[in-house]
Design brief:
378 residues, alpha+beta, 6-stranded mixed beta sheet, two-stranded antiparallel ribbon, 46% helix, 8% strand
C-alpha cells in the first residue's frame, strides 16, 4: 500500500513545542529546539523503515516483546534489556514499556482478534532512554521510542516526566502502527486528525481495560501523569471535553475543538492533526457513554472494524461518521440502539452520517407501519 507523508508521529504536538520556544526558559527553549530538529531528522528514517520494514513474525497468537536501552544515545534499537517472559529489570521505563506494550497487544488480540500490530505476529520492539532528556515518544514505522522527559533540567524547570509513565501514551503510539497497516490514513488534515484520534481511542481503551473501568467511570484523559506538578494540566488531551486538558502560563491553553463549528484551519502541524482530532475524539466518547458498559466491547469494536474494513488513506471526518454508522448497523442491526448511539455521537459534534440520511425515510415508513399494524414489520 502506498504510504502517506512520512512524518514521525509523536505524542507531544508541535504547538506545545512552539509555546515552549516562545515562553520557556533558555534551557527549556534549547530542549524544544532539539526535539523539533530530531523529529525532522527522523522523517527520512521512518520512510525507509516503512518501505523496508523487517517484520519479525511470531507464531500465531504468540506475544513477543523486546525492550532496548539506548543509554541516552540515538542509535536504534540499542541494547536488549528485557525479552518476553523475563523478570522485571527494576528500570521503571523499561518495565513500563514492557507492561504497556503487553496490555496493548492483549486488547487487540483478546478483544479484536488481531495478531499483533501488523496482524501477522510482529514483534513489539521498544527503546527507552532515547537521547538525554528527550521530551517525546514516537512510533517510527517499526518500533516504539521513548524519551525520559526533563530529568536533565533543574527541578524548578521540569515540565515532563518520563514518557512511559502513561500507558495510554504507549498504546496510542503503538496504535499508529495498526493504522499504518490498515487504513494507512495520510498524516495531514482530516485524515491525519483521524489517524491521531484512532490512536487516542485505542490508547484510552487500553487504559480503561487495565483499570477495569466502564465508560462512565473513565476520565478519558490522554497522557495523565506525563506533566510534572509545575504544569497546570490534567493531561495532553481530553476526549470527554476537548479544549480543557491544560491551561498553563507556559504551555498555553488546550486548543482542541469539540465541534465542527470550531474546526481549526491551519497549515501548522500538518493541518492541525493534533488539534482537530478533538472532534472525532468527542464523538467516540459520546457513543461509548451512551452505549454504557465497557467501551471496548461495542464502541471500540465499531471503530476497529471501521479502521480495518471501511476507511482508506484520504478518509475525512464525514467518511468516518458514515462508515462507523454503517458498521454499527451491520454489527447490531439497522435502527439498533448501537447505530442510534453512533448517529447521536457524530450529530453532537456537527456531523450527520450519510447512511442515516439515506435510511431516514425507510426508518420512518417502518415506524408508521408498526404503529398501524401493531408491530408487524413491512
Amino acid at each position: 500500500m502506498e504510504q502517506g507523508p512520512h512524518t514521525i508521529q509523536c505524542i507531544i504536538p508541535p504547538h506545545m513545542a512552539e509555546r515552549i520556544l516562545e515562553k520557556g526558559t533558555l534551557a527549556q527553549k534549547a530542549k524544544a529546539e532539539k526535539y523539533i530538529r530530531i523529529a525532522g531528522q527522523m522523517r527520512d528514517q521512518r520512510q525507509m523503515m516503512s518501505e523496508l520494514t523487517r517484520k519479525a513474525l511470531a507464531a500465531e497468537g504468540e506475544r513477543i516483546r523486546k525492550i532496548y536501552d539506548a543509554h541516552n544515545a540515538s542509535d536504534l534499537p540499542g541494547v536488549l534489556v528485557r525479552s518476553e517472559g523475563d523478570a522485571p529489570t527494576g528500570d521503571a521505563a523499561a518495565d513500563e514499556a514492557y507492561d504497556g506494550s503487553g496490555a496493548t497487544y492483549d486488547l487487540y488480540a483478546e478483544i479484536f482478534g488481531r495478531n499483533s500490530i501488523d496482524n501477522r505476529g510482529m514483534e513489539l520492539l521498544s527503546t527507552v532512554h532515547f537521547l538525554e532528556g528527550y521530551d517525546n515518544a514516537f512510533w517510527n514505522g517499526e518500533q516504539m521510542v521513548y524519551g525520559d522527559g526533563d530529568e536533565d533540567l533543574p527541578e524548578d524547570e521540569r515540565l515532563f516526566n518520563r514518557f512511559t509513565i502513561a500507558v495510554d501514551i504507549i498504546a496510542h503510539e503503538l496504535s499508529h502502527g495498526v493504522t499504518q497497516h490498515e487504513a494507512n490514513l495520510v498524516y495531514r488534515d482530516q485524515a491525519g486528525a483521524l489517524n491521531e484520534s484512532f490512536s487516542d481511542v485505542f490508547g484510552s481503551l487500553v487504559k480503561q481495560r487495565i483499570k477495569n473501568q466502564r465508560a462512565d467511570e473513565a476520565d478519558w484523559l490522554i497522557g495523565e501523569g506525563l506533566f510534572t506538578d509545575l504544569v497546570h494540566a490534567q493531561g495532553i488531551r481530553s476526549m470527554k471535553a476537548p479544549g480543557t486538558a491544560y491551561d498553563d502560563p507556559l504551555l498555553g491553553r488546550d486548543p482542541q475543538p469539540g465541534h465542527m463549528n470550531d474546526y481549526v484551519h491551519t497549515s501548522a502541524d500538518n493541518g492541525g492533526v493534533h488539534i482537530n482530532s478533538g472532534i472525532p475524539n468527542k464523538a467516540f466518547y459520546l457513543v461509548a457513554v451512551e452505549l454504557g458498559g465497557y467501551a471496548w466491547e461495542k464502541a471500540g469494536l465499531i471503530w476497529y472494524k471501521t479502521l480495518c474494513e471501511e476507511l482508506d488513506q484520504t478518509s475525512d471526518f464525514q467518511a468516518a461518521a458514515d462508515s462507523t454508522h454503517k458498521v454499527a448497523g451491520a454489527l447490531y442491526g439497522l435502527d439498533s440502539d448501537e447505530q442510534k448511539a453512533v448517529y447521536n455521537g457524530w450529530n453532537a459534534v456537527g456531523l450527520v452520517p450519510a447512511s442515516a440520511q439515506q435510511g431516514g425515510c425507510r426508518g420512518t415508513i417502518r415506524r408508521v407501519w408498526r404503529s398501524i399494524f401493531g408491530g408487524r414489520s413491512a
